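2024-03-11 09:14:02 DEBUG pipeline.ingest accepted 1 chain
2024-03-11 09:14:02 DEBUG pipeline.ingest length=117
2024-03-11 09:14:03 DEBUG pipeline.predict start
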Amino acid sequence: MNKDKKKFISIIITLIIGIGLGFFGVMVSVFSDGSTYERLITILIILIVYGVLSLIIGFIRPLKPWGHMLALSLPGMVMLIFYTVKEFNILYVVYIVLILLVTFFGVKSGKSIKRKK
């Protein structure tokens, strides 16, 4: 299997994981019933999952992992943007920015861990 085909397949797998995390993670945390505290805990857990997955991506793909980072984070962000258009809340905008920042810094951390070894 050539290098481009492996990269394409790994981006597709990452995109599927991103769609699952966006639908079953981000959207569930937005739609969940409960107190604000419970929602914040759920959002924190989702952000931790994004961080761990992006750390793994940065470690496995230390050279140009940006396509994988976007494939992981964009599905959840797009779903949240579509929901924000319907029902605007400034906290959803903060959530979108946090998803992007957590995945970015997770990938950067994974790359630096790989370089140190």
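2024-03-11 09:14:41 DEBUG pipeline.report Helices lie at 3-31, 36-60, 66-86, 90-116.
2024-03-11 09:14:41 DEBUG pipeline.predict end
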